[in-house]
Design a protein that fits this description.
It is a single chain. The chain contains two helices and six strands; from the N terminus they run ββββαββα. By secondary structure, the chain is α+β, with helices and mostly antiparallel strands. The protein has one domain. The protein has a six-stranded antiparallel sheet. The relative contact order is 0.19.
């Protein structure tokens, strides 16, 4: 599904929620508030997943503060480097990580994070489902 200028995989069994829960996104071009990865380069794309904050901290040391609109997180990373798992340049404050143009080897490591993102999305879905107004008509 396309949303916000990127392709995404959502967890939303039976379309219960108005909008599902992100599991993974793929971004292929720069956006107004997301230019840090220089995705407008030929054949460059970024794969993104959301982790539990504790897992993010285990990998990257801390959760950064939320950047102001149009800015990136304050972390010591070159967000343009290919084939390196790193914090997401904009959404690291939410526990998101990314990799630009992952090789097969890097994607094998990234798949562990993708699995966590899937499990985490299922947890968030269950919480949102409880709070979603019923669509059933009486």
């Amino acid at each position: 599904m396309e949303s916000w200028g990127e392709k995404g995989i959502f967890y939303n069994p039976n379309g219960i929620l108005k909008r599902g829960v992100y599991v993974l996104t793929i971004k292929e071009k720069d956006g107004d508030n997301d230019k840090a990865s220089l995705l407008n380069r030929d054949n460059v794309y970024r794969v993104n997943v959301g982790l539990r904050k504790q897992t993010f901290i285990e990998h990257f040391g801390h959760i950064p503060k939320r950047p102001s609109a149009g800015n990136i997180v304050k972390m010591d990373y070159d967000f343009t480097i290919l084939d390196t798992i790193m914090p997401h340049p904009v959404y690291a404050w939410m526990g998101w990580v990314c990799v630009l143009n992952p090789s097969s080897k890097t994607f094998e490591e990234f798949k562990i994070m993708l699995q966590e993102s899937y499990e985490f999305a299922k947890e968030k879905f269950a919480k949102r489902k409880k709070n979603e107004p019923s669509n059933t008509k009486i």
